[in-house]
Amino acid sequence: MILHTIISPDYILPNGLNNTEIVKTQEIEYKGIMLEVIELDKKTYAINRILSTNPKDFLKLELQPGAIIELTFNSQD
Amino acid sequence: MISDTQKFKSEEEPNKNSPEVSQNAAANNIKELGTPNIPLVKNNNIHCLTIIGQIEGHIVLPPQNKTTKYEHIIPQLVAIEESSEIDGLLLVLNTVGGDVEAGLAISEMISTMSKPSVSLVLGGGHSIGVPLSVSTNFSFIAPTATMTIHPIRMTGLVIGVPQTYEYFNKMQERVVNFITDHSSITRDQLNELLFRTGELANDIGTVLIGEDAVSYGLIKEVGGLKNALTKLKELIGEKKGV
């Protein structure tokens, strides 16, 4: 990895490349779109990434990374 | 398909779209993740793409870094190019730099778009932010904004052999080539700025503030939001007129 930045690498990666904290994510389907999300609590999820091949999905305001979505588990599906 | 996928259904709330609820959701996003929801303007034909913090590359950066993720920006650019509702792109930059590959990838995507694009450097457009700022059809810099021009560096294992220098030189060339191809700064001028000593405390290079970036031909004009939008609308008009 080549970084071209004015920030010192010690600030960007304080523990080097070895000990970066791994964020636990899961994949869900929301309104027909696959998303990689981080569980905040049982009902709310923060979007980490959109797993879609449709470029239009990436322009949807409610699906921007960091947006919080509320979901309930649907046992029927 | 992915086997452990869980299917969820969106919770039905009758008042979900009421202003109060959406305001709360927006406030929550700012509180929890520092991401504001941009107010949606109807009948708007300009897409505003903001590049902030570090440009994240192939390695997920720890949470104290504010990042722009290339895997989100690249498909967005495809969507903008393909969209029948969007006529132009406003690129707002306030970045400290980041991954070379990701920065160049975004720059190449923007420079090869058919739709008019204008960039506006606010605060800072440092390091790999420089190729990004010149990738658009026209560029503006705020009078107080800064751009740091300095050579690339590497994290991780560095082997002390001549090949390492050669490799570095090649990587630097990619950035230099992109900047000189998309702005009116000459290679000699850019190299002089890159290797200048005595300006930065712990690095070599140059800090350009507002007007300086324009005088070197890196950025086209000094301006702000009004200038950038006026120029973008002008470019959209020109393209539609053809």
Instruction: Give the strand line-up of the largest sheet of chain A.
Output: 2-3-4-5
Helical residues, percent of chain B: 40-55%
Main sheet overview of chain A: 4 strands, antiparallel
* Gyration radius of chain A, rounded: 16 Å
Strand content of chain A: 35-45%
Q: Please give the most extensive interface between any two protein chains, plus how many residues each contributes.
A: A-B, 49 and 61 residues
Number of strands of chain B: 10
The termini of chain A sit apart by 42 Å
Structural class of chain A, please? mainly beta
**Dominant shape of chain A:** extended
Reading the helices and strands of chain A in chain order gives EHEEEE
Q: What is the quaternary state of this protein?
A: heterodimer
Overall number of strands of chain A: 5
Residues in helix, % of chain A: under 10%
How many angstroms does the end-to-end distance of chain B come to? 46 Å
Q: Mind summarizing the main beta sheet of chain B?
A: 6 strands, parallel
What is the mean predicted local confidence, pLDDT of chain A?
Answer: 83
Q: Would you mind describing this structure in some detail?
A:
The complex is a heterodimer of chains A (77) and B (242). Chain A has one helix at residues 9-12; strands spanning 2-5, 26-30, 33-39, 44-50, 68-73. Helices cover 5% and strands 38% of the residues of chain A. The termini of chain A are far apart. Chain A has a four-stranded antiparallel sheet with strand order 2-3-4-5, with no helix packed on it. Chain B is α/β, with parallel strands linked by helices and 242 residues long. In chain B, the strands form two sheets. In chain B, strands 3-2-4-5-6-10 form a six-stranded parallel sheet. A two-stranded antiparallel sheet of chain B has the order 7-9. Chain B contains eight helices and ten strands. Chain B has helices at 19-33, 70-82, 100-111, 129-134, 162-182, 187-194, 211-215, 225-241; strands spanning 6-10, 46-56, 67-69, 88-99, 117-125, 138-141, 146-149, 153-154, 206-209, 221-222. Chains A and B meet through strand 1, helix 1, strand 2, strand 4 and strand 5 of A and strand 1, helix 1, helix 2, strand 4 and helix 3 of B.
